[in-house]
Amino acid sequence: MSEISSDLRDWREAYREAEIGPRYSGWLHFAFTTVGSLSAITFAASRLHGVRPLEWALLPLFFLISNFGEYFGHRGPMHHRKRGLGLLFKRHTLQHHRFFTADSMAFESPRDFKITLFPPVMLLFFIGGMAVPIGALWYALVSPNAGWLFAVEGISYFLLYEWLHFLYHLPEESLLGRLPIIATLRRHHQAHHDPELMTRWNFNITFPIADWILGTSYRR
Length: 220
Description:
Structural class: mainly alpha
Strand content: under 5%
Shape: globular
Oligomer: single chain
Largest sheet: none
Low-confidence stretches: none
Mean pLDDT: 93
Radius of gyration: 18 Å
Protein backbone atom coordinates (compact mmCIF):
# COMPACT_ATOMS: atom_id res chain seq x y z
CA MET A 1 0.00 0.00 0.00
CA SER A 2 1.17 3.52 -0.76
CA GLU A 3 1.44 6.23 1.86
CA ILE A 4 -1.72 8.18 2.62
CA SER A 5 -1.85 11.30 0.50
CA SER A 6 -1.99 14.69 2.19
CA ASP A 7 -5.48 15.34 0.75
CA LEU A 8 -6.81 12.05 2.14
CA ARG A 9 -5.15 12.65 5.50
CA ASP A 10 -6.75 16.10 5.70
CA TRP A 11 -10.16 14.64 4.77
CA ARG A 12 -9.86 11.94 7.42
CA GLU A 13 -8.95 14.46 10.09
CA ALA A 14 -11.89 16.68 9.12
CA TYR A 15 -14.23 13.66 9.26
CA ARG A 16 -12.96 12.61 12.69
CA GLU A 17 -13.38 16.13 14.00
CA ALA A 18 -16.94 16.46 12.66
CA GLU A 19 -18.33 12.94 13.05
CA ILE A 20 -16.54 11.11 15.88
CA GLY A 21 -17.33 12.41 19.34
CA PRO A 22 -14.69 12.60 22.07
CA ARG A 23 -16.39 9.84 24.09
CA TYR A 24 -16.58 7.37 21.20
CA SER A 25 -14.85 4.03 21.86
CA GLY A 26 -14.15 1.85 18.86
CA TRP A 27 -13.66 -1.28 20.94
CA LEU A 28 -16.88 -0.64 22.87
CA HIS A 29 -18.69 -0.28 19.53
CA PHE A 30 -17.19 -3.57 18.35
CA ALA A 31 -18.13 -5.26 21.64
CA PHE A 32 -21.75 -4.03 21.46
CA THR A 33 -22.14 -5.38 17.93
CA THR A 34 -20.59 -8.72 18.90
CA VAL A 35 -22.26 -9.28 22.27
CA GLY A 36 -25.62 -7.96 21.08
CA SER A 37 -25.61 -10.24 18.03
CA LEU A 38 -24.45 -13.30 19.97
CA SER A 39 -27.15 -12.69 22.59
CA ALA A 40 -29.86 -12.57 19.93
CA ILE A 41 -28.45 -15.69 18.25
CA THR A 42 -28.39 -17.55 21.58
CA PHE A 43 -31.99 -16.59 22.34
CA ALA A 44 -33.22 -17.71 18.91
CA ALA A 45 -31.28 -20.98 19.16
CA SER A 46 -32.80 -21.66 22.58
CA ARG A 47 -36.25 -21.73 20.96
CA LEU A 48 -35.36 -24.66 18.71
CA HIS A 49 -36.81 -28.03 19.72
CA GLY A 50 -36.48 -31.36 17.95
CA VAL A 51 -35.24 -29.92 14.67
CA ARG A 52 -35.89 -32.38 11.83
CA PRO A 53 -33.37 -33.10 9.03
CA LEU A 54 -35.53 -31.31 6.47
CA GLU A 55 -35.53 -28.23 8.69
CA TRP A 56 -31.72 -28.31 9.04
CA ALA A 57 -31.58 -28.62 5.24
CA LEU A 58 -33.06 -25.12 4.98
CA LEU A 59 -29.88 -23.52 6.32
CA PRO A 60 -28.04 -23.40 2.94
CA LEU A 61 -31.12 -21.74 1.43
CA PHE A 62 -31.21 -19.23 4.28
CA PHE A 63 -27.52 -18.51 3.72
CA LEU A 64 -28.13 -17.81 0.04
CA ILE A 65 -31.07 -15.53 0.90
CA SER A 66 -28.77 -13.56 3.21
CA ASN A 67 -25.98 -13.46 0.64
CA PHE A 68 -28.28 -12.08 -2.05
CA GLY A 69 -29.84 -9.69 0.46
CA GLU A 70 -26.37 -8.36 1.26
CA TYR A 71 -25.64 -8.02 -2.45
CA PHE A 72 -28.80 -6.11 -3.39
CA GLY A 73 -28.69 -3.95 -0.26
CA HIS A 74 -25.12 -2.96 -1.08
CA ARG A 75 -25.66 -2.52 -4.81
CA GLY A 76 -28.90 -0.63 -4.23
CA PRO A 77 -29.41 1.91 -1.42
CA MET A 78 -25.82 1.86 -0.19
CA HIS A 79 -24.63 3.12 -3.60
CA HIS A 80 -27.75 4.80 -4.99
CA ARG A 81 -29.65 7.38 -3.01
CA LYS A 82 -33.16 6.12 -2.20
CA ARG A 83 -35.96 8.03 -0.52
CA GLY A 84 -35.88 7.39 3.20
CA LEU A 85 -32.44 5.74 3.01
CA GLY A 86 -30.33 8.78 2.21
CA LEU A 87 -28.38 8.44 5.46
CA LEU A 88 -27.27 4.93 4.43
CA PHE A 89 -26.03 6.27 1.08
CA LYS A 90 -24.23 9.17 2.74
CA ARG A 91 -22.52 7.00 5.33
CA HIS A 92 -21.42 4.36 2.84
CA THR A 93 -20.73 6.00 -0.52
CA LEU A 94 -19.91 9.55 0.54
CA GLN A 95 -18.05 8.76 3.76
CA HIS A 96 -16.82 5.16 3.96
CA HIS A 97 -15.59 5.09 0.36
CA ARG A 98 -13.97 8.49 0.79
CA PHE A 99 -12.29 7.52 4.06
CA PHE A 100 -10.90 4.22 2.74
CA THR A 101 -9.53 4.18 -0.80
CA ALA A 102 -8.23 1.18 -2.72
CA ASP A 103 -4.69 2.35 -1.88
CA SER A 104 -5.38 3.19 1.77
CA MET A 105 -7.62 0.54 3.30
CA ALA A 106 -6.36 0.27 6.88
CA PHE A 107 -7.58 1.74 10.17
CA GLU A 108 -5.19 4.21 11.77
CA SER A 109 -6.71 3.87 15.26
CA PRO A 110 -9.73 2.28 16.98
CA ARG A 111 -11.59 5.58 16.51
CA ASP A 112 -11.75 4.73 12.82
CA PHE A 113 -13.95 1.72 13.61
CA LYS A 114 -16.93 4.09 13.48
CA ILE A 115 -16.65 4.51 9.70
CA THR A 116 -16.64 0.72 9.15
CA LEU A 117 -19.03 -0.83 11.68
CA PHE A 118 -22.75 -0.20 11.34
CA PRO A 119 -24.18 2.17 13.97
CA PRO A 120 -25.39 0.20 17.02
CA VAL A 121 -29.01 1.01 16.18
CA MET A 122 -28.62 -0.98 12.95
CA LEU A 123 -28.46 -4.21 14.97
CA LEU A 124 -31.91 -3.43 16.38
CA PHE A 125 -33.17 -2.46 12.93
CA PHE A 126 -31.80 -5.64 11.38
CA ILE A 127 -33.35 -7.86 14.05
CA GLY A 128 -36.70 -6.07 14.25
CA GLY A 129 -37.02 -5.05 10.61
CA MET A 130 -35.62 -8.11 8.82
CA ALA A 131 -34.82 -11.20 10.91
CA VAL A 132 -38.09 -11.14 12.87
CA PRO A 133 -40.60 -10.55 10.01
CA ILE A 134 -38.87 -12.91 7.56
CA GLY A 135 -38.41 -15.49 10.30
CA ALA A 136 -42.10 -15.11 11.20
CA LEU A 137 -42.99 -15.90 7.59
CA TRP A 138 -41.00 -19.15 7.69
CA TYR A 139 -42.50 -19.85 11.13
CA ALA A 140 -46.04 -19.56 9.73
CA LEU A 141 -45.51 -21.20 6.34
CA VAL A 142 -43.16 -24.07 7.25
CA SER A 143 -42.67 -24.63 10.99
CA PRO A 144 -41.66 -22.84 14.21
CA ASN A 145 -38.19 -24.37 13.94
CA ALA A 146 -37.79 -23.00 10.42
CA GLY A 147 -38.62 -19.53 11.68
CA TRP A 148 -36.12 -19.67 14.54
CA LEU A 149 -33.47 -21.21 12.31
CA PHE A 150 -33.82 -18.29 9.92
CA ALA A 151 -33.38 -15.89 12.84
CA VAL A 152 -30.24 -17.75 13.96
CA GLU A 153 -28.78 -17.74 10.46
CA GLY A 154 -29.80 -14.16 9.60
CA ILE A 155 -28.32 -12.59 12.73
CA SER A 156 -25.22 -14.79 12.42
CA TYR A 157 -24.82 -13.50 8.86
CA PHE A 158 -25.08 -9.90 10.05
CA LEU A 159 -22.32 -10.56 12.59
CA LEU A 160 -20.18 -12.34 9.99
CA TYR A 161 -20.59 -9.31 7.70
CA GLU A 162 -19.43 -6.97 10.47
CA TRP A 163 -16.47 -9.14 11.49
CA LEU A 164 -15.20 -9.73 7.96
CA HIS A 165 -15.59 -6.08 6.92
CA PHE A 166 -13.69 -5.13 10.07
CA LEU A 167 -10.88 -7.56 9.20
CA TYR A 168 -10.53 -6.19 5.65
CA HIS A 169 -9.68 -2.78 7.11
CA LEU A 170 -7.01 -4.05 9.49
CA PRO A 171 -3.42 -3.44 8.38
CA GLU A 172 -2.39 -6.13 5.90
CA GLU A 173 0.63 -7.02 8.03
CA SER A 174 -1.48 -7.69 11.14
CA LEU A 175 -1.82 -11.26 12.42
CA LEU A 176 -5.40 -11.67 11.21
CA GLY A 177 -4.84 -9.57 8.11
CA ARG A 178 -2.20 -12.04 6.90
CA LEU A 179 -4.56 -15.03 6.97
CA PRO A 180 -4.88 -16.34 3.38
CA ILE A 181 -8.69 -16.39 3.38
CA ILE A 182 -8.84 -12.84 4.74
CA ALA A 183 -6.24 -11.64 2.24
CA THR A 184 -8.24 -13.15 -0.64
CA LEU A 185 -11.55 -11.66 0.49
CA ARG A 186 -9.86 -8.32 1.21
CA ARG A 187 -8.63 -8.10 -2.40
CA HIS A 188 -12.22 -8.61 -3.57
CA HIS A 189 -13.39 -5.78 -1.30
CA GLN A 190 -10.37 -3.61 -2.10
CA ALA A 191 -11.25 -3.58 -5.80
CA HIS A 192 -14.72 -2.35 -4.82
CA HIS A 193 -13.07 0.67 -3.17
CA ASP A 194 -11.75 1.81 -6.54
CA PRO A 195 -14.07 4.73 -7.51
CA GLU A 196 -14.18 3.50 -11.10
CA LEU A 197 -15.40 0.05 -10.01
CA MET A 198 -17.51 0.59 -6.89
CA THR A 199 -20.91 1.06 -8.57
CA ARG A 200 -20.53 -1.95 -10.90
CA TRP A 201 -18.43 -4.66 -9.26
CA ASN A 202 -17.86 -6.71 -6.08
CA PHE A 203 -20.92 -5.96 -3.99
CA ASN A 204 -20.63 -8.95 -1.66
CA ILE A 205 -18.77 -8.13 1.55
CA THR A 206 -18.72 -11.66 2.97
CA PHE A 207 -18.42 -14.34 0.30
CA PRO A 208 -18.79 -13.31 -3.37
CA ILE A 209 -21.44 -15.90 -4.22
CA ALA A 210 -24.07 -13.51 -5.59
CA ASP A 211 -21.31 -11.55 -7.35
CA TRP A 212 -20.21 -14.73 -9.09
CA ILE A 213 -23.73 -15.86 -10.02
CA LEU A 214 -24.77 -12.42 -11.30
CA GLY A 215 -21.52 -11.72 -13.13
CA THR A 216 -20.30 -8.79 -11.07
CA SER A 217 -17.13 -10.35 -9.63
CA TYR A 218 -14.22 -8.22 -10.84
CA ARG A 219 -10.80 -9.74 -11.44
CA ARG A 220 -7.85 -7.61 -12.44
